[in-house]
Every structure is written in structure tokens, then in C-alpha cells.
UniProtKB/TrEMBL annotation:
Biological process terms in GO annotation: cell wall organization; peptidoglycan biosynthetic process; regulation of cell shape; response to antibiotic
Catalytic activity annotation: di-trans,octa-cis-undecaprenyl diphosphate + H2O = di-trans,octa-cis-undecaprenyl phosphate + phosphate + H(+)
Enzyme class: hydrolase
Phosphoprotein listed as a keyword: no
Main location: membrane
Lineage: superkingdom: Bacteria
Name under which the protein is recorded: Undecaprenyl-diphosphatase
Membrane topology, from the record: Multi-pass membrane protein
UniProt gene name: uppP2
Function according to Swiss-Prot or TrEMBL: Catalyzes the dephosphorylation of undecaprenyl diphosphate (UPP). Confers resistance to bacitracin.
Amino acid sequence: MEKFITIIQFLILGIVQGVTEPIPISSSGHIVIFRELFGIETKGLSFEIFVNFASLLAIIIIYWKDIVRLIKNGFLYIVKKDPDAKSDFQFIIYLIIATIPVGVVGVLFGDALGEALSDDPVVVGYTLLITAAAVWTIRNLRGRKADGDLTTKDAVIVGLAQAIAVTPGISRSGATIVASMLLGMKQETALRFSFLLYIPVSLGTTILEVPELVESAEFQSLLIPNIVAFIAAFIATYFALKWFMNIMARGNLKYFSYYCLVVGILVIIFL
């Protein structure tokens, strides 16, 4: 019976990760909250990294055509200097630039942040309030910048926003989309840049951490629950991102701000 309850708990954690990863309410913050509610203890950010890999696969599937186009046109511009491919080549360069800040933060402070913040729901409560305020600021924005209008400055600012979001409770998608919208990007461009930016960061973390994680005694002892969480996160991320794309198109971001405000206050009071 205890094993069954554990599987159900990890199933819920996987669904929570999957639903909250694409939308601006902080997946890492919600994992901390639900682990606290379920009394599940894991070291550092190992579980988050594992289920994030599931979300990564779902996001790659959704943006597969964009990824293939960017790679194809990137090589085409390098080899033949095709002017029609220049915009996609520059987009790739901006993604690389925007990846640098979070890479630096991860290398220098990743372990410290994981140990200090991953098990503190009160910190998550306050950072959710920050996320609520940030999302509120862009609730009515309609930008004009398309993919070909981005600049190095845009890439640096969005990259810095993503670096800030290593703190649980600060939504990664929220931080990057807020920064993108404040810089004048269209909703579609802001979404594309945000989630394509997620791919190299998550992929790098996965390559570095997951092989060691799956060999650990802690992971092996909870192998089935972890696999259940992984599958749940993959499915939930896929459908949540599709849903969020429609939400962005309709401009209903204020409801995510309300949600983060309410949850943040409840966490501060009760956890």
C-alpha cells in the first residue's frame, strides 16, 4: 500500500511539473510546494532535473519544425551566405548569447542554490509574489518585433532574465516571456524565443546531471515512481504548452498573475 501511495504522489508531482513548466507560474516552485505537502525528501534539484528532461522532450516535439528550419538555414547561411537564411542564423546566435548568463550562474552558484532553496517553501512563496507582479506588468502588451527584428541587446536581457529564474518560484518561462514582451516582441516571437532558449539550457543540465542521477541509490530505490513521474511530466507538458500558446494569443495572462499571488500568500501563511 505504501508503494502504491508513493507512485500516486510521484504521478501527481510529474503532472504538476508538466503543467507548470510551460506556463508562467514556476514549475520548480510548485515541485517544492508539493514535495513539502507529500513529505518527500530528495537531495538538491535531482528530481526537478529528471522531470525537466521529460518536459524538454515534449517542447522539442512541439517546436521540432522550428528547430529543423533553424539548423538547416543556419548551415545554409554559413556555407552559402544565403541572404534568405540570415534571419534564422542570427536567431541562433541570439539564442546562444541568451544561454550564456544562466550557464555562468549554473556553474558558479548552481549547487549552492539547489541546497539553499530547493527545500524552502517560504522562499517559494515570496518568489511567487515576484512572478505575479512580473506577469501583471505584461498582461496587456502587444509587441511588434518579429524573429528577424531581434538584437544582441534583446538576447542579453532575456538571458539575464532566465538566469534570475534559477531561483525556485521565479518562473523561467514567465521571466523570459516578461522580458521579451517588455522588449517589444510579438507574443509568438516571445514564446518561440523563450522555449527554444529552454532547450540548450535543459539539454546541458540533463547531459551533466541525469547520468549520475539515474545511477544513484536514491533514484534506484524509487525507480518506478520516477518513471511514472517522467511519463506524466512529458504528457502534461505537451498539452499544457499547446494550451498556453492559445492563452498567449488571446492575451489572458492576468489570470496567471492572480494565481501566483494567491498561491504565494497561502504558502507564506501555511507552509
